[in-house]
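Appendix B, Record 12. Input sequence as logged:
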Amino acid sequence: MRILYSVAFRAVSIFVIALFLPSICFAQAPQASGGAPLQQFDQIMLSLLQNYNVPGGALAICKDGKLVFARGYGFAELENRRPFEPTTYMSLASVTKAVTGVAALRLVDEGKLNLDDTLYNVLGKPRLENVLDRRVFDITVRQLLHHSAGWASDFVGYDQETFNSLTARGPIEFEKLLLFVMANKQLDYAPGTECHYSNFQFGALKSVIEHASGQDFESYVNQHVMFPMGIRGNRLEPERGRYLANEAHRYAPMLKPLPGGHPNGELTGSLGSWESSVVDMSKFLTAVDGTRTKPFLSKASFDTMVAPVPPPVPVRENGSTFGLGWDSVKTSPEGVQFAKNGGVPGVHTYIEHLPNNIDWVVFFNGTGISEKPNVLVSAMKAMHQALSDVTDWPAVDLFTQY
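Logged structural output:
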């Protein structure tokens, strides 16, 4: 019976998405200097939408700081047949962490934050009573950015016992949750000795940025990170159940519509709730790597961002390590690679800088069918091969249009 259901599910899903694919929306088609468009990228995206039953997505590629490819595919909103554009906004999910990391380093460059200061000091030495694990006073900002601050557990809706006890009377601000956890929860390991991917640690960075800057997270990131990069209109996603203007809607398997926003939006700003577009995140990458503009960060801060996690944390077997806000940083004779992905139901996002000064960004607004690898893993594999095959890049810069 399960086999029959799976076959029927896939057949219906492909039929439904096929009804929409003829209306795919493209931005202006960039032409390579040899006269042929970069058609392999269209083919990759169209195949992914169909094979994984995803309504829409967008892809942007930069070479040497120039936007050479920017296209939208399928639909941002199926119900109204609204096309997915390169300028369509979508939740970045955990790609937000890269934005948070750069914001923290900007504060360092402004002289307002020291990465080796303790979380406790940055928070203003709050009163913590009957602290269960006094190692919490040793946690540094750098360790939070490296996922090495002592928490392997997540408390943003994942540790339901802790979360429910605090939210029983309604929504709470993240800092209240943070102080409760600091006082009442045992650390999982000594800070700085291990790395465990943790949403909670990046949630703590929201409080760090707000205390160090004297501004709320959204205002600081826009005014001190996005605006100087030439990016306008980015924002935090709204409360659960709402979509903002020009935002891609999200879809579950069988193209079932999902609500917008985040159920715990007040708690997730710095870890997974920033909204942007593939064009804007291309501006972000090319500002961070310094290929489009003067490098956004000082050389010292950039080098710190991509440096390996300090000992005793080892480098991974493939030679990569966590960066400050990045899932993967890897240095080779050709240069440095850094990347971050994100995913929540109805959202897949990915940004990457490659050593040969290629930056690329891809968004999908559907969870897709339940197969392994998922749509994002397949996109990464196909794109890495296609990007390595390009020898003649278009002599254009589409940033002039955005």
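Residues 2-20 form the longest helix (19 residues).
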